[in-house]
Amino acid sequence: MRQWITFILGFLSFLAVAIIILVLFLGNKPYSETEQLAIDRAKSEQLIEDVERAYVYTNTEASVTVLGTNSKGELTAVFVPKDGGKMQAALLKDEITAQQAREIVVDEMAVKKILHTKLGMEKDGPVWEVAFLDEKDSLNYVYLSASDGTWWKRILNL
């Protein structure tokens, strides 16, 4: 009897781990496919040559930001709309970096933990989205202009 209980508990544990891995893999698949399609599209239109990173950026509309270098070796961001609209490219050599955006936020806000920093395209141009938890564990999103680091928008205490 004791062997059966051990076997059943072991089998259920294995099954639970397998289901968790399957859910995580299948849950991330749409993002991975969307990012890969955006990378392929940016490369096919020769806006970017070598890709360092790509991620989904969502505000009023979803898009994929592809970061890398162009054919001249310049650091470039390509903003690929999810609906297949017109892509936009921006050279990042004169823009503030993700690290500088985080430092601006940390200097001016009560930041406990930064969750992510993403570059995205808004109506006023490229912006850095910095998501963080404050000292009260409230979720906050702040947006800084990528051109000069000025505050564009703040969504606080969620």
UniProtKB/TrEMBL annotation:
Domain Cell wall elongation regulator TseB-like: 38-81
TM region(s), chain numbering: 7-27
Alphabetical UniProt keywords: Membrane, Transmembrane, Transmembrane helix
Protein name: Cell wall elongation regulator TseB-like domain-containing protein
Species name: Planococcus kocurii
Record bears the keyword Membrane: yes
Gene3D superfamilies: 3.10.450.40
Stored SUPFAM superfamilies: Cystatin/monellin
